[in-house]
Design goal:
Layout: E1 2-5, H1 12-16, H2 43-46, E2 53-57, E3 62-64, E4 72-78, E5 81-86, E6 92-98, E7 103-104, E8 115-118, E9 122-128, H3 129-138, H4 140-166, H5 169-185, E10 193-195, H6 200-207, H7 211-223, E11 227-231, E12 234-237, H8 240-247
Antiparallel strand pairs: 1-2, 2-9, 3-8, 4-7, 4-9, 5-6, 5-8, 10-12, 11-12
Length: about 250
């Protein structure tokens, strides 16, 4: 992990010019607002960068552990992060993937409820929670932003609970692919080419499946012509309507 002051004069692009995974290219995804349920920081949050610190983490490095004192909150500048919990028997449940622009660690109380790990090489803006508390006390707009963040986090958590509790394997895979297309570029369209920062094991631990089940389900969708799989980190959506039909239980 390396650290530098946000106001040290280093241009943000100097720190994040090279992405640790490719952006979506070659597909039909048009630029659009972030998907519903994804928190987009307003100017109230961007102004916090004045007292933030730029920190980098290497692939698979731990940003914080479950139970650690919640001293800091974070904004993801570049890369991807997984939020997870390790069970006593060694199983892991990933509860969230954070992508560029996402905020995390703002809603924990005295300690972190989950562990955060870098999926790729990561650059974050780190904020001291005690400083945030002072800013929040005198800034009503920031208080409203935090309430909005809490609402969207609960919405995403509820959606995950429904997926894990009620959806079939194919429905979970289809939901995940459309969700990632929407989060990365704003909209899932025909011929979309989705570059996933996470691997199959991360996907399995998020969807509550085994890696073998995830690979088998993707292979079935590929054989049916619904998707293409050029690489392990790239999915091409050939038939978006079939994916949506799977989610609705019609296929």
């Amino acid at each position: 992990m390396t650290t530098s002051l946000a106001h040290s004069g280093m241009a943000p692009n100097d720190a994040v010019a090279h992405r640790p995974w490719p952006v979506i290219v070659g597909g039909a995804l048009a630029r659009a607002p972030r998907a519903r349920g994804t928190f987009v920081p307003s100017e109230d949050f961007r102004s916090l960068d004045d007292f933030g610190t730029t920190v980098t983490f290497s692939r698979n490095e731990t940003i914080f552990n479950e139970g650690d004192s919640a001293k800091y909150a974070y904004k993801l500048v570049s890369g991807a992060v997984r939020l997870c919990k390790l069970m006593a028997d060694g199983r892991r449940q990933i509860t969230e993937f954070y992508l560029e622009g996402d905020m995390f660690g703002f809603l924990d109380l005295d300690s972190y409820d989950f562990s955060a790990e870098a999926i790729t090489n990561v650059v974050v803006m780190r904020y001291a929670r005690n400083h945030l508390k002072h800013v929040e006390e005198r800034d009503g707009d920031l208080q409203r932003e935090l309430a909005n963040m809490l609402h969207q986090r609960l919405s995403r958590t509820n959606a995950l609970l429904v997926m894990l509790g009620r959806q079939t394997v194919k429905e979970r895979i289809a939901s995940f692919l459309i969700q990632m297309a929407e989060r990365l570029e704003g909209e899932a369209l025909e011929a979309a080419c989705i570059d996933l920062p996470m691997g199959r094991q991360d996907i399995a631990d998020y969807l509550g499946l085994t890696i073998e089940t995830v690979c088998r389900a993707l292979s079935e969708l590929k054989r049916a012509g619904v998707i293409g799989v050029p690489t392990t980190h790239q999915i091409v959506v050939n038939d978006i309507e079939t994916l949506r039909a799977i989610i609705d239980g019609d296929n």
